């Protein structure tokens, strides 16, 4: 079904290992596209988190990405404050947005108590509803570029939320890694593109608009199958008027399955038009 297809993903090669493996197993070519880079708010994030836990005394800590986990714990290690951080987190009930984030937390010695069945902000909200957590306090260390949706959702449920912004994001600056993709894209040889976050959508357009007029860029995108890993990513694509398919399961594996289905449908439609 995917044999011979070329599919891009808006992640760096290091972060796209699962996708690259899935593509290889399906005889497809994966093209990693580093679209965003993290800009840490510095060493202060560890003390800010520790002080917030001490003063705010949260019942739950919620981790919304493996990147947030890695940055927070790696910074703590550099400062010699890993044990303090582990203890602070362990003194809360820990919720992870999905399996990758859970594995990253467990690798740092943190037991994950809850993981939603839907790996998104909506899933986290549903999990808290099941827990009957009205009146509880939640601390969320995350990106400064995140939407306010989660905080607003939990507030509506009756949960007190404190967000700690660990980092901001910007478009990836060294775009020499995009040269191969640009060449394929200009020749309409990119069969599919998987977008993995709203930030990566913005990064993609910021990078590509330097070489393409928006009209041409959007026209070329109509010749590729576009899949969004989740609803927020899909909404961001819609802002750029890009038609896309939303993965039902908000993971790389789930999005890859959606890409397989979408490319199959897209290929049949293309052949029908050609006939």
Largest sheet: 5 strands, parallel
Q: Radius of gyration from the CA trace?
A: 20 Å
CATH topology of the largest domain: Rossmann fold
Based on DSSP secondary structure assignment, what is the total number of beta strands? Answer: 10
- Bulk shape: globular
Overall structural domain count? 2
Biggest sheet, strands in spatial order? 2-1-8-9-10
- Tell me what portion of residues adopts beta-strand conformation: 15-25%
Q: Identify the CATH class of the largest domain.
A: Alpha Beta
Characterization of this structure:
The chain is an alpha/beta fold and 275 residues long. The chain has two domains: 6-36 and 172-274, Rossmann fold; 43-168, Rossmann fold. Helix content is 48%, strand content 18%. It is built from twelve helices and ten strands. The chain has helices at residues 17-25, 44-56, 66-79, 82-90, 99-107, 121-130, 149-157, 179-186, 198-208, 214-221, 231-239, 252-274; strands at 6-9, 29-32, 36-40, 60-63, 93-96, 137-143, 160-171, 192-195, 225-228, 245-246. α3 (66-79) crosses α4, α6 (121-130) runs parallel beside α7 (149-157) and α9 (198-208) packs parallel to α11 (231-239). The radius of gyration is 20 Å and the shape is globular.
Attribute tags:
Rossmann fold, 275 residues, alpha/beta, five-stranded mixed β-sheet, five-stranded parallel β-sheet, globular
């Amino acid at each position: 079904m995917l044999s011979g297809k070329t599919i891009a993903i808006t992640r760096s090669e290091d972060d796209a290992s699962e996708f690259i493996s899935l593509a290889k197993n399906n005889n497809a070519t994966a093209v990693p596209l580093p679209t965003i880079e993290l800009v840490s708010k510095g060493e202060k994030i560890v003390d800010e988190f520790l002080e917030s836990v001490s003063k705010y005394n949260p019942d739950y800590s919620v981790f919304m990405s493996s990147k947030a986990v890695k940055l927070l714990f790696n910074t703590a290690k550099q400062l010699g404050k890993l044990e303090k951080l582990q203890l602070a987190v362990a003194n809360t009930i820990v919720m992870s947005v999905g399996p990758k984030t859970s594995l990253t937390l467990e690798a740092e010695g943190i037991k994950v108590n809850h993981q939603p069945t839907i790996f998104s902000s909506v899933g986290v909200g549903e999990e808290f509803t099941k827990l009957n957590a009205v009146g509880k306090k939640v601390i969320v260390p995350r990106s400064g570029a995140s939407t306010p949706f989660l905080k607003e959702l939990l507030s509506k449920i009756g949960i007190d939320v404190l967000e700690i912004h660990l980092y901001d994001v910007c478009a990836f600056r060294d775009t020499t890694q995009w040269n191969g993709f640009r060449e394929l894209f200009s020749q309409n040889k990119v069969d599919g593109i998987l977008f993995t976050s709203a930030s990566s959508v913005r990064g993609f357009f910021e990078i590509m608009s330097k070489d393409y007029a928006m009209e041409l860029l959007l026209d070329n995108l109509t010749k590729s199958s576009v899949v969004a890993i989740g609803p927020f990513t899909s909404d961001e694509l819609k802002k750029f008027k890009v038609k896309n398919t939303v993965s039902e399961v908000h993971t790389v594996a789930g999005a890859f399955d959606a890409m397989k289905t979408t490319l199959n449908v897209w290929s049949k439609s293309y052949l029908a038009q050609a006939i």
